Amino acid sequence: MLDFNLLAQADGTAEAPPAEPTGEQQVNEAAEQGKEAVGGLMQGDFSQATQLLIDWGPKVAGALIILVASFIIGKIISRIVCRSAEKAKIDLTLSRFFGKMVYYLVLVVGVMIALGTVGVEVTSFAAILAAAGFAVGMAMSGTLGNFANGVMLLIFRPFDVGDVISAAGVTAKVNAIELFTTTLDTGDNRRIIVPNSSIYGGTIENITHHDERRCDVNVGCDYSADIDKTREVLSKAAESLDEKLLKGEGRGYQIVLGDLGDSSVNWTVRFWCLASDYWPLKEALTRAIKMHLDEAGIGIPFPQMDVHLDKAGE
Q1: From CA 300, how far away is CA 304, in angstroms rounded?
Q2: Confidence band for 14, pLDDT divided at 50, 70 and 90
Q3: In this predicted model, what pLDDT tens digit does every residue of 106-135 receive, in sequence order?
Q4: Per-residue model confidence as pLDDT tens digits over 148-180
Q5: Would residue 192 be called left, alpha or beta, if left means φ above 0 and alpha means ψ between -120 and 50 degrees?
Q6: For residue 150, what are the contacts with CB-CB under 8 A and spacing of at least 6?
Q7: Residues 6 or more apart from 239 whose CB is under 8 A from it?
Q8: What integer best gives the mean pLDDT of the chain?
Q9: Is residue 22 classed as helix, strand or coil in its secondary structure?
Q10: Cα-flanking dihedrals φ and ψ of residue 303, to 5°?
């Protein structure tokens, strides 16, 4: 075979083939290519980010401004509604309820406008919100029931803050009427929170609704005691508290002969008084009845049973 390299060298006209690049040159070339690629990517990302900022920046800023403005406007309108309701002598709890409703309504309107500003279809969003609300409503039927009953309590007002009521198995003073629950404080200073559906769905007794109350004290007397004398003694016991007695048509005090019990004749002393004096007066009336019966020698028998045994086999 012919050695073409030798022929080329001998001829002097052929050029020698290029030399192979070294490892260092290859690394440098790869680094340059990487820099060019990274530079191109960074330039492309920067241009895309700039374009996004130009397209969406004003919209997002406008939406944020609308949200902040709706928050401030909602607060202002809520205060105006509360002050107007107070001037109109509407109940404080009800006026605060109206203020909160107006505040949340303004916020919802602001959110809807902000979503429209950034290009979100409000009609589609409203449909989705309605569907989600229906699903949540089905899952939270009990909570929504408490809300509905809370609205009914606030509108029809079977009791007010400060009243003493008996409802849902609890007797206590009303501390607050909220949308979902009613807060009660007992006589021994316990805080009880009752769902509104448990209150409005049952019987409500408003103990302090009226300014006047009738205090009833039941007492049993011996069968051997004279009926007329017993009535006279009980009347004197009631009259001893004359300064607390409310007088007028249908008022005053009454001595009522009730029934004939197993071991005593049962009486009831009825005494009209101010609702604020009820509990102290009931104690004082009970004490007066006991003392007057003791002075008259009329006994208050204990419950008793007579057992007769017959001798078997006789």
Answers
A1: 12
A2: very low
A3: 888 888 888 777 776 666 666 766 776 666
A4: 898 899 889 999 999 999 999 999 999 999 888
A5: beta
A6: 177, 178, 179, 180, 181, 182, 196
A7: 253
A8: 81
A9: coil
A10: -60, 130
**Which residue's structure tokens are 């909220």?**
178
| CATH number among 2.30.30.60, 1.10.10.410, 3.20.20.70, 3.40.50.300, domain 158-206 | 2.30.30.60
Sequence length of the chain is 314
Quote the pLDDT of residue 4: 46
CB 208 within 8 A of CB 171: no
Of 155, 194, 157, 150, the C-alpha closest to 172 is 194
Residue 145 or residue 136, greater confidence: 145
Q: Which amino acid is at 219?
A: V
CATH classification number, 44-139, choose in 1.10.287.1260, 3.40.30.10, 3.30.70.20, 1.10.340.30: 1.10.287.1260
